[in-house]
Amino acid sequence: MAKLVINVDGSRHAVKAAGDTPLLYVLQDELGLTGPRFGCGLSQCGACTVQVNGKAIRSCVTPVVGVAGKKISTLQGQGTAEKPSALQKAFIDHQAAQCGYCTNGMIMAADAFLKKTPNPTEAEIKKAMNPWLCRCGTHYRIVAAIKDAAKAMS
Q1: Domain chopping of the chain, boundaries
Q2: CATH superfamily ID and name for 86-153
Q3: Using N-to-C axis directions, what is the helix angle for 139-153 and 103-116, rounded to 10°?
């Protein structure tokens, strides 16, 4: 196992992991983060989504060696229960989750999207969020939350 240094939510961490270990496992097992979640392990569901240098990626299939020296952002870096980010607050206000399992990935993807597209149309939001399928069926609430967050962030 190699010692790698990764930068997560603004803090440097020396981790002991084989280079091909999925980033998700390092975030959960070594750093104790609970935002990114294991869903499918195949890069399909999006529950494991984090940002690397501002781009939303699936951490379940991303080798940790590939992100050494890059800026990794997780849900825990977005805000806190006492002071949620604009996007987290919008998801709460719109009750945009029922079970909440995929919400981490949606928030991380929506945050990366809004940084690139600060004033999106509804069609642009739907296209950006297309890879995330909320099985609870809160699609309209998710779109409304992202719209409101875009207004609050601009």
Answers
A1: 2-77, 86-153
A2: [2Fe-2S]-binding domain (1.10.150.120)
A3: 40
Which tokens is 16 given? 């002991």
3, 33, 60, 75 from 104: Cα distances, Å: 28, 12, 14, 6
Tell me the C-alpha distance between 5 and 9, whole Å. Answer: 13
Domain 2-77: homologous superfamily in CATH: Beta-grasp domain (3.10.20.30)
d(CA 153, CA 86): 7
If one counts every other C-beta atom within 10 angstroms of the C-beta of residue 120, the result is 19
**What does the pLDDT look like over 29-83, one tens digit per residue?**
999 999 999 998 999 889 999 999 999 999 999 999 999 999 999 999 999 999 9
